[in-house]
Specification:
about 625 residues, alpha+beta, 8-stranded antiparallel β-barrel
Amino acid sequence: MPSPSRLYKLSLNDWERIAFYLVASENTFLGPPSELCALSLVSRHIHDAMSTKHNSRLYARIFRFKFDTAAPSRRLSDRWLTSRCLTSELIKRFATLRQVRLRREYKHEDLWTCYLMMSENDGKNESQLIKWAGLELYLEAFMATITQTPQTWYSDVVGHSLAMWLLWMTISRDNIRMENSELSKAIITMLHPFIIAGHRLASAYAPDCFFNLPICDQTTSIPPHCSGPPASATEIIHYSHKLKLVVPLAVSAAVLITTVRTEELQDWRTFPEPAPSMPLDRGAADTLGVAGPTVEDISSFHFQERISVPRQAVPAIDLSFDQFSPEGTIEIPPSGSEGSERYDEDWSRLVACHDPWMGPTPLRGKMFTPGSLVGSWEGRMLVPSFEEYLIYIINPRSSPFSVSLYHQPLYWTLQEHHCLHREDMLSTGTGDMEDDDFLNTWLPRGTTVKHTNDAIQLYDPVTCRTARYETFNPRSTAHYSKSACDKMETPWISDSLSETISGSEYGSDLDFENPDSTMVYIDDDDEYEDVVHYRSSGICDILITGKVSERRASAWGEYTIIGRVRPWDGLIVLLRTPRFSEHGQWIFRGYLHNRNLVGRWRETSTPVDAAGLEGAFLLSKQDDH
């Protein structure tokens, strides 16, 4: 051990290296950096050198060692990721992780921290939450407290929504199979009202009666609409800055979890006895000239078709010291194929869609990835019993628990068509309530669609003009026809409110000799504002067309699909029409969550200002072309 005089000769950088070596030694990845406690007790001098006040750069390095940083680097500007910000976030996270580990309280701020950590997860965050803090047991205990009084399902929308999204983000089919059967049934029961009575909760981030957002300041009243009450918003501290967020939609999380749990129940339930007259497969049905599902169709839906789940096993991490960079980073494989990128669109909606009257915000990112709907989709509709649902709607005293729920197969093949020039963009349809015609997917009534090899042509009866939308081709690097690509322009767009500020490799220290000086830092909210640059896709509008494949149509009916994507929040609205009739049209609206399209449906014969028959749906993408 060096003499005290030699200890005092060590520089701040020397102590930083010593401290980080202790924290990054073998078997110290999980949990808080408790190794620093013993070092800080050696002397007051060392204690000061190791304090967060005097050496925030050390704790920023520890943060990068223990948590993922790729997502915040993509989503936030430099001033959110300074050493002081990362130090503050490190302290906040381990305070939350201790609460989760001890399972003492269920505070909104802790649920928000866990949710955002999972949103930024590329492997490290999930390891800290699940392996060290025991997040799954925490959520299980939280759900147990809720399921004891299921009548209060609507009493805490924020807490319930965050808990349900965390359940989804950490879901594992293996864990469901090993779960206590009583708890599993209780969770499904608790989720039931979110699906039956989903019209009482927000199902979109802005009213669906508007296609063009933000809402004009002169608009003081909102026309009738179907998307429920406004989504709740709240303000939290994130990386030491105040951040206003909209609460993620509880209804969507309930549909995702219910579907996965139902699929697991289907795995061990006895296959329903088919009618003696039901053909075994499509070949036998064609021979007999019989339409409708076969034994093979029902068996496929019952045992084989499954939605995409976000989580794989927590990755193994090589903790040998020689794997670390000088900055304290270590690359580990992500917990899923897309890592944190799968949640980028969800994040954009949270930070940019809390006020439909507000214009573009600096942290706003992509809301919808062009081409993500192209391909084959399989899923299900969650349909309430018509008679029971009618009683529930008419009688305000009736309970959503009294309404039975049925699952019906749903199969679509979709294409995307993009308007590349604003002057060619189709107008917005006007409904009976002087709203944007949501029940016709915001399209003018009477619009006709003609398909060509590489585009669709739409006749707009309102403007008496024909619009051309280019068909997106995922198999081509250009994605559109040559003539369309030649006319495209993709300029850089900036939502910046100030000039870009360059940080160091740590993203923080303007004074490397004294990284914790009292000078003005770029993370000062009173001095600097955010800067976000992104490249425009060149797309002005997105239309969707689709159908049920020939094989599926023979079993479950032939339908055509047309729809539109709202650019403000990526809300997808699709109209399903029977192939040979205009009666029985249903509207589907929802958001993409990675490879799952989740939302609510309703029949279109009931006006938008009245409660109609509605339920939930979920479709999972089967391929990329």
